[in-house]
Amino acid sequence: MEDNAPVHIHHYQDIPRDRLGFTKLVWTTNSPDLNPIETIWMELKGILREKIGA
Predict the structure, then answer these.
(1) What's the superkingdom here (predicted)?
(2) For residue range 9-24, what is the model confidence (pLDDT) as tens digits?
């Protein structure tokens, strides 16, 4: 999966893909900040810390 990391956006990545006839799919940048489950986990961890006293 290409996630816009520098290693995935170099033009050399296009050559093998084009030779094999693959189509490049456009994906949004993969970031934990954009993942809603990360916010939920942060809240859950806070609740558990309060209850357990860790």
Answers:
(1) Eukaryota
(2) 666 666 777 788 887 7
